[in-house]
Amino acid sequence: MDQRNAPRKSSSRPVPAAATLMAALILGICLIISAAIISGSLKKLTTAVNEKDFASTYSSPSNLTVKPESTDYFTAAEAAQYLKITESEVKAAITKGEISEYISTSAGYSISKKALDEYFSNKAYAQLLNDNSAGGEE
Questions:
Q1: Which CATH number is associated with domain 68-136?
Q2: Of 117, 125, 124, nearest in space to 99 by CA
Q3: Which one of 10, 34, 88, 100 has the lowest number of neighbouring Cβ atoms within 10 Å?
Q4: What is the domain partition of the chain in residue ranges?
């Protein structure tokens, strides 16, 4: 007889009903236990959220105040005092690009001392050139 045409015998034996029932029972118990664990965790989380208002306990970065040892950055008002000009002149210099190293924040500008020194040097040099050119024309 040709082996290709011969009916194949199933190598697996039928699973007894008791084994199937036992597997279903174990799976059901695991599901019940995991649901109880998840539900307990949710109750704890809900209780914690109801007892505590998390938003009011944490400060946002804009509420924090940091005073560095050395003043390397100035607000627009502090920069104006440092340069002995008005605050609007400082803001105009930023807008024109004459002061290039700054950070724009929700509270205003944070301008580096280095950028202010460069701005002052450039302004002083421009004024000196202007004075010399005006004096040479007379």
A1: 1.10.1660.10
A2: 117
A3: 10
A4: 16-60, 68-136
